[in-house]
Design goal:
Shape: rod-shaped
Radius of gyration: 21 Å
Number of domains: 1
Largest sheet: none
Order of helices and strands: HH
Structural class: mainly alpha
Helix content: 55-70%
Number of strands: 0
Oligomer: single chain
Length: 49
């Protein structure tokens, strides 16, 4: 039995899993705001009264 019969379906299933994970992350808002966390780090040094 050739290895291609094992590797090709495994690669397809893995690719579908990665695409599904990307779609889930996009719909749940993981990529909504990429700039604020970097800027928020600079404003953490404020003095508290």
């Amino acid at each position: 039995m050739s290895v291609i019969y094992l590797v090709l379906p495994l690669a397809i299933v893995l690719a579908i899993a990665f695409v599904a994970a990307f779609i889930w992350a996009t719909r749940s808002g993981q990529y909504d705001d990429l700039d604020s966390p970097a800027v928020r780090m600079l404003n953490d040094d404020e003095e508290k009264p």
